[in-house]
Write a structure and sequence with these properties.
The structure holds 2 protein chains of 2 kinds.
Chain A: H1 5-32, H2 41-51, H3 56-79, H4 87-125, H5 128-134, H6 139-177, H7 182-192, H8 195-221, H9 232-262
Chain B: E1 3-15, E2 21-33, E3 37-42, H1 48-56, E4 63-68, E5 71-72, H2 78-85, E6 88-91, H3 103-114, H4 119-132, H5 148-160, E7 166-170, H6 178-195, E8 198-202, E9 215-220, E10 223-227, H7 230-233, H8 239-258
Parallel strand pairs in B: 3-8, 3-9, 6-7, 7-8
Antiparallel strand pairs in B: 1-2, 1-4, 4-5, 9-10
Helix pairs in contact in B: 3-4, 3-5, 5-6
The chains are: A mainly alpha, B alpha/beta.
Chain lengths: ~260, ~260
């Protein structure tokens, strides 16, 4: 270890720059893989099934509980001002613009992103990625780009499902358990949600999908080059944790940035 | 004789965690003749596997040039590098089989991805290769269900699919018992006789591996010594080589001294 603090700072700075550089090159390779043949449709379908269909249960229950809590909390807050009729509007806007994209991305990070990172990390340490290189098979076209495309397809669809289930959950809590009228819930939602709000939610879900798949797959891919990760199974477990943490923080930071820019 | 692989003044170093630089290859020159078997030997951490990775473009040199079949391939990237790699077959230390694919799918992969053969042709070629490597009946097994020796055979079968002109073997008998090691050596001799490839073997299994060698390269502290035959090593007057010979070839060394 360098004992001089300035040397340590410089060393860390160089490491961060190198890491960002290789992440950027990784992203370029992943996009380039979309234009290389033969295209692996079967692998893409498999990944959409794993990321999308496989996440349906966790998305459904997260959305339902989030929507129901929003319904109860919203009713409690709005009833103080006699504005219970606004519950549909409050629940739907919160879900479509914020909670739907963010919570979907966080759930997908935990379920599929971590698995993706561990899978690629194990392939790296067991020399399977080197073997692909040596067989003149581009690893990006072969198995990383399909994960990117699958994530970009699955996350927006899961977000849409999250929004619908969450709004239904809000309806169940507000209309079913409290005394909000069904008409005012639906009408409030229809009157307040605009195309702009839906567009914002869709843009967010695409950006979050890209962040999650990029960070999770790149951490696994570079497992041997990440400082402090160690070697072998322990290195895979450490980079997987790191991938989940970095992805989650990135989603939250970009949520704020996108809201500030696009709202 | 034409060179299959040639290193000219190649330098490769790594920066350690304490910031110091370790020279794995410090300006080495050597040539691997076409059609022959070259064994790269040396202690742990002396750069044997790094040398293979430099040949394959999995790592880049700090300075110097690498020639493959008289073509300068130093710093080659992208599709040029991919094309170059079709010249090579590699048997990894760990076999590096794709663990989510069956034996059949592992062996068929290079044909599916790198050739225009149809399913029927691929099936026929893979079946013939599996029979040649005595793997018939194991097509549907996954790598986790195979013994170490079988994994090596599947790895070799996969590496041979595109009929490479140069085969690289990274510790082909590591982790195998003596019987299995012997089997791998026989397999090597048989496939080499059949396909006539240039072979480079990185191995610790000395002196057994020397029985296969036409040339030996000994790595030590970033430098290389090249010997025209395994016998030549024993007559070197360099102290570290004498030490290496005593450690690894003790009995043979002694018997040669007696002769």
């Amino acid at each position: 270890m360098k004992s001089n603090p300035i040397a340590q700072l410089g060393d860390t700075g160089l490491y961060v720059l190198t890491d960002l550089g290789r992440m950027a090159i990784f992203l370029l390779h992943a996009f380039r893989g979309m234009f290389r043949r033969p295209f692996r449709l079967r692998e893409l379908v498999h990944q959409v099934h794993f990321i999308g269909a496989g996440s349906l249960v966790v998305i459904f229950f997260t959305a339902l509980s989030t929507g129901m809590v929003l319904g109860l909390q919203g009713y409690y807050s709005l009833s103080k001002f006699g504005a219970e009729g606004m519950l549909g509007s409050a629940v739907s806007l919160t879900l479509i613009m914020e909670l739907g994209p963010v919570l979907t991305a966080l759930m997908v990070t935990g379920r599929a992103g971590s698995a993706m990172c561990a899978e690629i990390g194990i392939m790296r340490i067991s020399e399977q990625i080197d073997a692909l290189d040596c067989l003149a098979i581009d690893p990006f076209r072969y198995f990383i780009t399909p994960k990117f495309i699958a994530m970009l397809i699955s996350v927006p669809l899961l977000t849409a499902i999250f929004d619908v289930v969450g709004i239904a959950g809000g309806y169940m809590a507000g209309v079913g358990l409290m005394d909000v009228s069904p008409g005012s819930y639906i009408q409030g939602m229809q009157a307040s949600v605009t195309n702009h709000d839906i567009r914002l939610g869709i843009i967010k879900s695409f950006v979050f999908a890209l962040l999650v798949v990029w960070i999770c797959s790149a951490r696994g891919y570079f497992v041997g080059e990440i400082r402090g990760a160690g070697f072998g199974a322990k290195s895979v477990s450490r980079v997987t944790t790191q991938a989940v943490v970095f992805s989650s923080i990135s989603v939250l930071v970009f949520d704020y940035l996108l809201t500030a820019v696009l709202l | 004789m034409t060179s299959a692989i040639e290193f000219k003044n190649v330098v490769k170093s790594f920066t350690k965690t304490d910031g110091s630089v370790q020279y794995i290859l410090n300006g080495v020159d050597f040539s691997i003749p076409e059609g022959k078997t070259t064994v790269i030997a040396g202690g742990s951490g002396q750069g044997k596997s790094v040398t293979l990775k430099l040949v394959l473009g999995l790592m880049q040199v700090d300075s110097g040039r690498i020639f493959i079949q008289d073509r300068d391939v130093t710093g080659l990237r992208g599709t040029d590098l991919e094309r170059l790699r079709t010249e090579f077959g590699v048997l990894f230390q760990s076999s590096a089989l794709f663990d989510s694919l069956t034996v059949f799918e592992n062996v068929a992969l290079p044909l599916r991805e790198r050739t225009k053969k149809n399913q029927e042709e691929i099936r026929e070629q893979v079946a013939a290769t599996l029979a040649q490597f005595e793997l018939t009946g194991h097509e549907e097994k996954y790598p986790a269900q195979l013994s170490g020796g079988m994994k090596k055979r599947v790895g070799l079968a996969r590496a041979m699919q595109l009929k490479p002109s140069i085969m690289l073997f990274d510790e082909p008998t590591t982790g195998l018992d003596p019987v299995m090691s012997q089997e791998i050596y026989h397999l090597f001799a048989r496939t080499k006789a059949e396909f006539g490839f240039t072979s480079v073997i990185v191995s610790h299994d000395i002196p057994k591996i020397f029985n296969l060698a036409d040339q030996v390269i000994l790595l030590h502290n970033g430098n290389m010594d090249v010997f025209g035959s395994p016998e030549e090593i024993q007559w070197s007057d360099k102290p570290y080589i004498q030490e290496f010979v005593k450690k690894t070839m003790g009995d043979i060394y002694q018997s040669h001294l007696v002769e």
